[in-house]
Amino acid sequence: MTDELRRACARALHAVRPDGEILKAGRGTLLVLSEIGWERTARIFSRRPLVWAVELGYWFVARNRSWLGKILPSE
């Protein structure tokens, strides 16, 4: 792993499709959801304008991890 990729992965989830395409952040999350059995949900949220809401939600959570970690239960 290069230093550049390590820094990028620290900022956002990276998921690699079988064809080699790399999806990041919200779109990467949708790929993971699809792979763990939530295909229909991922397919619905992959369409505009819902994918924009997914990206916005990912952005909000990613930038507020420490604050959210304090108010959400941990198990």
Quantity of strands, as a count: 2
Order of the strands making up the biggest sheet = 1-2
Question: Helix count?
Answer: 5
Largest sheet, in brief, is: 2 strands, antiparallel
Distance between the termini: 31 Å
Mean pLDDT: 91
Name the helicity range. Answer: 55-70%
- Shape from CA axes? globular
In N-to-C order, the SSE pattern is HEEHHHH
Low-confidence stretches: none
Question: Which percent range describes the beta-strand content?
Answer: 5-15%
Tell me the Rg in angstroms: 14 Å
Assembly annotation: single chain
The helix/strand class is mainly alpha
Secondary structure blueprint with pairings:
Layout: H1 3-11, E1 14-16, E2 22-24, H2 25-35, H3 39-45, H4 50-63, H5 65-71
Antiparallel strand pairs: 1-2
Helix pairs in contact: 2-3, 2-4
Short description:
The chain has 75 residues and is mainly alpha-helical. It has five helices and two strands.
Overview of this protein structure:
- The chain has about 80 residues and is mostly helical.
- The chain has 5 helices and 2 strands, in the order αββαααα.
- It has a two-stranded antiparallel ribbon.
- Helix 2 (about 25-35) runs antiparallel to helix 3 and helix 2 crosses helix 4 (about 50-65).
- The termini are far apart.
